[in-house]
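Person: At home tonight, work slowly through the protein below, taking as long as you need, and write a paragraph about the fold.
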Amino acid sequence: MPTVLLSSAYLPPVSFFTAMNGASEVLIEQYDSYCKQTYRNRCVIASASGPLVLTVPVVKPDSPKQTMKDVRISDHGDWRRRHWNALESAYMNTPFFMYYQDDFKPFYEKKWDFLIDFNMSLIQTILDLSHLEKNISLTGSFVRNSNLEEGIKDLRKLIEPQNTPEPAKSYWQVFSRKHGFLPNLSAIDLLFNMGPEFKSFI
């Protein structure tokens, strides 16, 4: 199996973990330029009204280009409380939210300085809860396409909001009767709805 190279993401989509599942090792790029309106600081969940985007506010950089590892999280707009309330409202009636909520709630009660650390800790939590054992690490420098070592699969551009792959199969979602199946939401949608079956789905 190859090593996959991925961009950092906040509560990444299902496709992110599908890519990880097919890899021997996982590298998360931390030296790329931070880009707005990507999964780096936002995720999509299923709400009663349909897909809902949750965005982590970040501190405005001092220069036009900022390295992902240096992006700081802002406290603007009481976003932690709003995100947790949105997650609770969306998933409190799913079969497994009550089993996993205590693993996620502390992330919204503690102040995190850097987005990369926040994202990595959430990714590791999802891996642990879904029993996906993967060697995951951050890059030590920016990985250029021309410098990719043999056996490394670059998926940094593939897993972006504008690239929504067709799911191999659907799973039960709490609002499916109202909205139909919503593909490639944040992986917590799969975790809260399917619990231990997360691993077999991806």
Strands lie at 3-7, 25-29, 42-47, 50-55, 135-138, 152-154. The two ends are 16 Å apart (CA to CA). The longest strand covers residues 42-47. The longest helix spans residues 115-129.
